[in-house]
Amino acid sequence: MKQFIYIFFCSAILFSWSCNDPLEGVPSGSTVPVDDLLDSPLELNMNPNGKTPLSGRLKVQTKHACDIEIILKEDPSVRFSSKNKKEHSFNIIGLFASSENTLNFSFRTVDSMYNAVTTYKIETPSLPDFFPDLEILKSEAAQMEPGWNLVELNIGSKNGFQFYPIVFDELGRIRYYLDLSHRVGWIGPLKFTENKTWLFGQFDFMDEYDLLFNKIEDWKFNDHNIHHDFYIKDNGNILLCTSKKNTPTNQDHLIEYNPNSQNIVNTWDFRELLDVDRNEMNWNSSDWVHTNSVSYIESQNINVLSGRYQGVFGIDNNRELKWIMSPHKGWGKSGMNGDGHETSDFLLTAVNANDEPYNEDVQLGLEQASDFSWTWGQHACHAMENGNIICFDNGWKTNFSGDAGYSRMVEYEIDADAMTVKQVWEYGKERGADLFSSNISDVDILPLTSNRLMIPGNVTGADGRQSRMVEIKYPSKEVVFEVVIRFKNQLSTGNGWTQADLIYQGERIDLFK
User: Fold this and answer.
1) Is pLDDT above 90 for 55?
2) Over the stretch 14-51, which tens digit does the pLDDT of each residue have?
């Protein structure tokens, strides 16, 4: 619901400002009533588009050009500013739910001619009852990546998922969320951009919105439905995992889209590259690869794809297969009719720290070595700057049998010339069931600290269904942040897909800088 509030100030908080022209009869540096400097009452429009219940738009008009800074008293790290204007607009975000939030303002110009004192408070609504409970187990702020925590919360219900991306601080307090429950069905991927906007896709379109959910741009992909993931290249083009419409298979295409020309500039059909008939892990011939992440190695012009049922593979911009990181069992010829190239020629050989190959059973995926395992049902595989690959290894159908009982972040070094792969780091195996999620989930490399962020999105814990977010130092594996996100499943009708709460992905973001 939209709320328009006209703000009249009362005495409590300091305003300091200077204006281009002095007030008649008032000496420079004097304290003056706020109304002497405002051209009209301040206007706050909370939740202007009905999708951001804890956020609003504040408009301020002054009689003279001024600089304005606003500080949230309850959390002084939340600040907003506007420079040298008469008409100012602010996205007010980061408020506390179910609270009386106090804003402190200061207005000033270079010569700081006048001051005023006032307070203003904003009442915010409660969070929905069906939101999860968050428990912080550890939070070492000095060692953590700066920012707050975004998780893609999906509330299960009889009508399908209801999508509520939530952002919470280092103490587990939800400070921002989007109510996208009006969009029926799975929404994804969702990303927070460097421009402080939201990009998310559903079906055959992708939209861009600002923090108050004003639409900025939208794109249509016509005969492609997007899903799971996209990647923005340095040239601004977007790589998107897709299903091509009117084909017998799905989740097995990649497109490159130029947002400026609004054209698809390249398309990859994985049926031409991989063995469509390899069914060692999948149970559905139409969803035979289930692509769930894409990234790009700019220096090598290699697209890195994760297929839940087939492993991780690299393809170049000429639509040529370069390598396959997967257990060797079951690989045959590519093509819908099995009349393409021999895919086994592109399999990477697993080697140890001394570059010695493991035995045949490890290569096939029938057993693990103490220092190596393939990924099993993996998600969120990211190409690193050094060419290494890091994945969330779900531990699903490990060695083609049962679940491993743990999930892990795992990093591999790939030598594309020697056609080898080496496991160089892992975390999570030692945590067992606490971090075990057999599906979805995420892992991120945090840019400022090089810490790693692990988000198992669908954990069946001893105390109920939950997710976790764990930040650890790299490579030491010291936990510096951990939160348990306990689902309530209030709208659920069972434990099936779309019927129970879960979190798809998460990341550390900065809403303010």
Assistant:
1) yes
2) 333 333 456 677 777 666 676 777 888 889 999 999 99
Q: Taking a C-beta distance cutoff of 8 angstroms, is the pair 267, 242 a contact?
A: no
Any residues with CB less than 8 A from the CB of 235 and at least 6 apart, and which?
none
Query: What is the per-residue pLDDT across 61-101, written as a single tens digit (0 to 9) for each?
Result: 988 888 889 999 999 999 999 999 999 999 999 999 999 99
Q: Sort 119 into a burial class: Cβ within 10 Å, 0-12 / 13-18 / 19+.
A: middle
Amino acid at 163: F
What is d(CA 299, CA 316) in angstroms, rounded to the nearest whole number? 11
Residues of the chain with CATH 2.60.40: 3-123
For 133-509, give the CATH class.
mainly beta
Q: Give the whole-angstrom CA distance, residue 148 versus residue 91.
A: 17
Q: If you search the block for the tokens 């017998």, which residue do you land on?
A: 248
Four-point Cα dihedral 29, 31, 33, 38, nearest 10: 30
CA atoms of 189 and 107, how far apart (whole Å): 40
Q: Are 497 and 439 in contact (CB under 8 A)?
A: no
Q: Which CATH class is domain 3-123?
A: mainly beta
> Residue 496's pLDDT is what?
79
Nearest to 305 by CA among 247, 376, 240, 249: 240
Spatial distance between the Cα atoms of 42 and 61, rounded to a whole number of angstroms: 7
For 466-478, what is each residue's pLDDT tens digit? Answer: 999 999 999 999 9
Residue 312 tokens, joined = 């991780």
As a three-state string, the secondary structure of 120-184 is EEEECCCCCCCCCEEEEEEECHHHCCCCEEEEEEEECCCCCCEEEEEEECCCCCEEEECCCCCCC
Q: Which segments of the chain belong to CATH 2.120.10.80?
A: 133-509
Angle at 121 between CA 119 and CA 127, to 5 degrees: 160
- pTM beyond 0.90: yes
Cα(42)–Cα(62) distance, rounded to whole angstroms? 9
Copy the structure tokens of residue 279.
């069914």
Strand partners, 422: 413
Q: How far apart are CA 103 and CA 119, in angstroms?
A: 7
